[in-house]
């Protein structure tokens, strides 16, 4: 249970701060004495947090599905020829700046959540795909050889041996991808998606540092919470599938 | 019975296995021996269809393996490889249970079988069943590998240099273990090795391979006495052959038996009937005695063996 304590504590802090931000008004007045209003009130922080998390979860789920499927395909005998192509597509997704993706996607998909979902998915693909490939390639060939030689079908080898053995590395890729995307999702506010980037953008436009700070703190705290959640998940995975590491 | 008829395997332009014919009788241990790259592993991997063959046919009990479902074929062939290939995320017990689980045996039957096999391979179920492969020594891991291959009681056992990565003492122990188990279970076994001594020790018949061809296929004794080519002669060791032949024969063959087994005097040391003549001679040279008593498995003295007779008739 102690494993799950840090993410729970961080989550409590995050939600507490999202609902109780007005209580910190004196502090923000001190930071920004020249403004009447120092607490962002156009939208509740809790709503923005919810929407932000929703965007990240949906894009991470779609990205994970696509990247893991691509990684599995590229390591099968029939898909080996596509291995360089698959890696390249993912690399391009990473090198293309999310802002540019937004600029290109808005005319097609309109303003709102859709363009940022596409941008996040593309941007998050590479870490997951790279780790899927690394995890699957790092499996001792003798294990696969024995599994096939004992009469397992290719699907059984994949499900019973390869995915459990590569899972830890794939999970680490998802962790990287999600953490990056929590920060990246904030730019969705520039095209009308409601995220924790809203107060940051509003603060920048109005010259209100207090707004910027509120958005930034919550985004940072969300990233920390998620990261420690993954830490706990990885430890649990170790206990379940790699007992030699956990001891 | 396994029959290979005109089997050929090419990798691109290179010929790995060149038109070989080989018949492995039911219950015998056929050892494929040769230097690396001679095609012995390729031959083995064609028998369970891990590699497709370019030409020829392979029959198992008269049936062409090309017509069978490869997974079904392999489920009925135990497979042991050098690196063991145990699943690192499964316990020893679950690794051994792999094939019975694929065959959907009921739970109690699997548990009983795992227990039986661990006992057969001299692994204590209570201490080892729940360990993970990384927690085992190399020898123990390979015992688990053999147990896994035997789990569903297949008719055929394929072993690809199973003891190659083990130290000399562990390897010797496992070889003896294999001889003991083979006496009990009588599997049709194809065993690949580059170690001629291992081949001589384990084989019913040896197939010597070189450059994709079978040079000689015969019993260990005939391989030693009448090597077909200079290659085989060099492989078995020209000068060393006398001792190797002695290594094949047991004390039982040349001892002078007592009319009836008798109780030995306490403290006398001797040989067992199934020890090799080579060992007997070594013991006598070391102890500098002309003869040594021989005991049977119950510890009774059944005869004596003399140095003179071994030297005269041993090889």
From TrEMBL, chain A:
Residues 49-230 form the ABC transmembrane type-1 domain. Signal peptide: none annotated. SUPFAM superfamilies: MetI-like (SSF161098). It holds the Pfam family BPD_transp_1. The chain crosses the membrane at residues 53-75, 96-126, 211-230. It is found in: Cell membrane. Keywords: Membrane, Transmembrane, Transmembrane helix, Transport. It is a multi-pass membrane protein. Belongs to the binding-protein-dependent transport system permease family. This is ABC transporter permease.
From TrEMBL, chain B:
GO terms for molecular function: ATP binding. Residues 2-236 form the ABC transporter domain. Pfam families: ABC_tran (PF00005). InterPro entries: AAA+_ATPase (IPR003593), ABC_transporter-like_ATP-bd (IPR003439), ABC_transporter-like_CS (IPR017871), CBS_dom_sf (IPR046342), P-loop_NTPase (IPR027417). Keywords: ATP-binding, Nucleotide-binding, Transport. It comes from the Bacteria. The keyword Translocase does not apply. Belongs to the ABC transporter superfamily. This is ABC transporter ATP-binding protein. It comes from Marinobacter koreensis.
């Amino acid at each position: 249970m102690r494993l799950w304590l840090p993410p729970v504590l961080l989550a409590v802090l995050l939600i507490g701060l999202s609902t109780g931000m007005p209580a910190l008004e004196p502090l923000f007045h001190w930071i920004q004495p020249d403004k009447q209003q120092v607490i962002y009130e156009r939208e509740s922080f809790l709503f923005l947090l919810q929407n932000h998390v929703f965007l990240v979860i949906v894009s991470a789920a779609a990205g994970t599905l696509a990247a893991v499927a691509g990684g599995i395909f590229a390591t099968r005998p029939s898909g080996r020829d596509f291995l360089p192509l698959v890696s390249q597509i993912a690399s391009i997704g990473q090198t293309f700046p999310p802002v540019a993706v937004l600029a290109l996607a808005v005319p097609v998909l309109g303003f709102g959540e859709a363009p940022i979902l596409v941008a996040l998915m593309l941007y998050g693909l590479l870490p997951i795909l790279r780790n899927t490939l690394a995890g699957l390639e790092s499996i001792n060939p003798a294990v696969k050889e024995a599994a096939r030689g004992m009469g397992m079908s290719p699907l059984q080898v994949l499900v019973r041996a390869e995915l459990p053995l590569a899972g830890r590395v794939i999970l680490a890729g998802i962790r990287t991808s999600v953490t990056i995307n929590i920060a990246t999702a904030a730019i969705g506010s520039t095209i009308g998606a409601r995220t924790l980037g809203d107060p940051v953008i509003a603060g920048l436009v109005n010259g209100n540092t207090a707004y910027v700070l509120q958005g930034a703190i919550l985004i940072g705290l969300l990233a920390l919470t998620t990261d420690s959640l993954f830490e706990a998940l990885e430890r649990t995975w170790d206990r379940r599938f790699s007992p030699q590491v956990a001891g | 019975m396994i029959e290979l008829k005109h089997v050929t395997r090419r990798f691109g332009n290179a010929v790995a296995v060149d038109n070989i014919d080989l018949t492995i009788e039911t219950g015998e241990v056929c050892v494929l021996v040769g230097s690396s790259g001679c095609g012995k592993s390729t031959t083995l991997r064609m028998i369970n269809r891990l590699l497709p063959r370019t030409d020829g046919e392979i029959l198992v009990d008269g049936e062409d393996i090309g017509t069978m479902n490869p997974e079904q074929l392999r489920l009925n062939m135990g497979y042991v490889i050098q690196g063991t290939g145990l699943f690192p995320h499964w316990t020893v017990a679950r690794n051994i249970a792999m094939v019975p689980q694929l065959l959907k045996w009921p739970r109690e039957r699997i548990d009983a079988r795992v227990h039986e096999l661990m006992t057969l391979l001299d692994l204590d179920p209570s201490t080892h069943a729940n360990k993970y492969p990384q927690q085992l020594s190399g020898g123990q891991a390979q015992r688990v590998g053999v147990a896994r291959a035997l789990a569903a009681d297949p008719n055929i056992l394929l072993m690809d240099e199973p003891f190659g990565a083990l130290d000399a003492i562990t390897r010797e122990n496992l070889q003896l273990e294999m001889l003991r188990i083979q006496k009990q279970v009588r599997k049709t076994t194809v065993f690949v090795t580059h170690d001629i001594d291992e081949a001589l020790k384990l084989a019913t018949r040896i197939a010597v391979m070189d450059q994709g061809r079978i040079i000689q296929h015969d019993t260990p004794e005939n391989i030693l006495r009448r090597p077909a080519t200079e290659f085989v002669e060099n492989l078995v060791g020209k000068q060393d052959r006398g001792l190797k032949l002695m290594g094949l024969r047991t004390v039982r063959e040349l001892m002078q038996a007592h009319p009836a087994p008798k109780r030995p005097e306490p403290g006398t040391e001797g040989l067992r009937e199934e020890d090799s003549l080579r060992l007997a001679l070594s013991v006598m040279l070391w102890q500098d005695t002309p003869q040594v008593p021989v005991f049977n498995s119950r510890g009774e003295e059944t005869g004596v063996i003399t140095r003179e007779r071994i030297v005269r008739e041993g090889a």
